[in-house]
Amino acid sequence: MKFLSEARLSALDLAPITEGGSAGQALRNSLELAQQLDNLDFTRFWLAEHHNLIDVACAATPLVIGYLAANTHRIRVGSGGIMLPNHSPLVIAEQFGTLETLYPGRIDLGLGRAPGTDQDTLRALGREPGDGSEFPQLVEELQHFLAVPSPGQSVRAIPGAGLEIPLWLLGSSLFSAHLAAQQGLPFAFAAHFAPDHLQQALQLYRAQFTPSPALAEPYVLVCVNAVAAPTASEARFLASTEQQKFLGLIRGKRSLLPPPVENMDELWSPAEAHHVRRMLRESIVGDREQVREALQGLVQRTQADEIMINSWIFDQQARLRSYRIIAEAWKD
């Protein structure tokens, strides 16, 4: 049995743009949250690369990482993740090499193989749609540019070459779990939006893990959504924002992050409610005691080394309070 005291606590943020808000306010809200978590027991603060989503302000992920790192002191800041097929590995090595040079010992580089957008936007990024099969080769190319240069190496990442920037592989399937095990890299599972293969992926990763210079033993991070409030009823009310967001996803309708509602049954059909609840079945919603019990259960079920919290909460003050309650629950 693993207890909360044996695991780490971290945060994921997508700089959500709310109804009535703006991208600028979303980024300032992310900084305010990062600064709060910098003073709590959170290990790292990650941002995710997504494009052409009207409710997400962190598309230029390395720039936002630099903005947050420059205005915090202790917490690690990184990507959860950079969608590597969208980029030249050399450019990513240079960008994160620059970040590591400016903020040494505080930068993480999490990598994903999905495009993080739609097919039209992918073409606008200068990439052709693919199945992700090129991802292992791109990871190896990135590792090459971040390694100590070999004699006579003609192309180098400057800065970047020779810097010990932690690489993570992110995923919601068995593909990335297998690759992370093969490469001896830490593995982060995206249970906050795709929990179906959680246990199977972690089992495969641990069973197939090969030690590497980067990591001697398997290291698992599990990301989930969480909403905490002083009372369970308020937490459920706040969590209706998250439910509305996922309802929009299954309907194929994008919108700015909506305010909470009292009754979701007025918005969704029974079939839609079942679908959304299935997607969000690892989400944690409740007061401090309920959140602590759910977090403890998650750690015991997954034996995770680290839990990462994402929160789709409309009101910034409620979001800040939610993370404070989670931090308190973690220490109880």
Automatic annotation (TrEMBL):
<dbReference type="InterPro" id="IPR019949">
    <property type="entry name" value="CmoO-like"/>
</dbReference>
<dbReference type="InterPro" id="IPR036661">
    <property type="entry name" value="Luciferase-like_sf"/>
</dbReference>
<dbReference type="GO" id="GO:0016705">
    <property type="term" value="F:oxidoreductase activity, acting on paired donors, with incorporation or reduction of molecular oxygen"/>
</dbReference>
<dbReference type="InterPro" id="IPR050766">
    <property type="entry name" value="Bact_Lucif_Oxidored"/>
</dbReference>
<dbReference type="GO" id="GO:0005829">
    <property type="term" value="C:cytosol"/>
</dbReference>
<dbReference type="Pfam" id="PF00296">
    <property type="entry name" value="Bac_luciferase"/>
</dbReference>
<protein>
    <recommendedName>
        <fullName>Luciferase-like monooxygenase</fullName>
    </recommendedName>
</protein>
<dbReference type="InterPro" id="IPR011251">
    <property type="entry name" value="Luciferase-like_dom"/>
</dbReference>
<feature type="domain" description="Luciferase-like">
    <location>
        <begin position="17"/>
        <end position="300"/>
    </location>
</feature>
<comment type="similarity">
    <text>To bacterial alkanal monooxygenase alpha and beta chains.</text>
</comment>
